[in-house]
Amino acid sequence: MSVIQTDPEVVAPDHIDPRVYDLYDEYCHGKFDRREFLARAAALTVVGVSGLAMAQALLPRYAQAQTIPFTDKRIKPLWVDYASPGGNSGKMRGYLVQPVGAGPFPSVLVIHENRGLNPYVQDVARRAAVAGFLALAPDGLFPAGGYPGNDDDGRTLQRSLDQGKLRQDMVNSAKFLKGHKLSSGKLGATGFCWGGGTTNHLAVVLGADLQAAAPFYGAAPRAADVPKIKAAVLAHYAEDDARINAMKQGYEAALKANGIRHEMHSYPGTRHGFHNNSTPRYNKQAADLAWERTIAFFRKELG
Question: What number of CA atoms fall less than 13 Å from residue 140's CA on the CB side?
Fold first, then answer.
């Protein structure tokens, strides 16, 4: 079955059928490609709204989602290259955003989803810099040519990489940021979806070198690895996110058992991806609250 993608109609988030949201979640996590996503959604029609229109409304619109332009006078963004031994190519590139001023600044690593460093995550790095942090958003796809300009190809590229080496690239990015001349040496990390799980992974691997971890709807580490965590943890969860939420109770129990300072927040009426303001999964109230909590957490833990 072929599907012709037309210009997307304006469809309000509350007019999108939950089945289409579920299809989108499977598509985002690589269960099938965009053609299959649109084809399956097109088979649905709900109260006069076509499933195809609902599906197209969920695809990201990055230009409209920008909140901090790269020309903002409060920040200085630039691209940086650095060594990444044991990674996918031995080299990495990241989007470094510093607040205006001499520094040093507490630093925050911002880790992308499962499709590379797209404009949304770059914007999050700029938000962190506006809040006073030296922010680095590494592009895990750099060894494969970098984020290709669209999420479909980005998702395919990310799956093609050695996943262990990709995580090592993130570890090396954290170490690069912590040792940067503008960094105070205090390091935090946050990330979304795959980046949320990787934030938890960094908390395990970096131990005392990471002071604060704020994963958004990220996979939990193995319970046996939790004792290695020395960072304070602030974990954000969507209410409707069965795959990630199935790990929450065990993670919380392991954090408590090991005396690790932590907070866990679940946001009512939200789905996986609620912080990403480029699609209708975005929930502004929850996203704003989660980000306010994250910035307050980093200020407390990093100074």
Answer: 32
- Distance (Å) of CA 268 to CA 58, 192, 241, 289: 20, 18, 11, 12
In this structure, are 126 and 24 located in the same domain?
no
The CA distances from residue 40 to 3, 171, 272, in Å, are: 10, 38, 20
Whole-angstrom distance, CA of residue 217 vs CA of residue 25:
13
**Residues 48 and 152 reside in one and the same domain:** no
φ, ψ dihedrals at 186, nearest 5°: -90, 130
Residues 189 and 233 placed together within one structural domain of the fold: yes
> Are residues 237 and 99 part of one domain?
yes
CB 11 within 8 A of CB 54: yes
Q: What pLDDT does residue 280 have?
A: 78
The whole-model pTM stands at 0.87
**Low pLDDT (below 50) residues in the chain:** 1-9
pLDDT, tens only, 116-158: 999 999 999 999 999 999 999 999 999 999 999 888 899 899 9
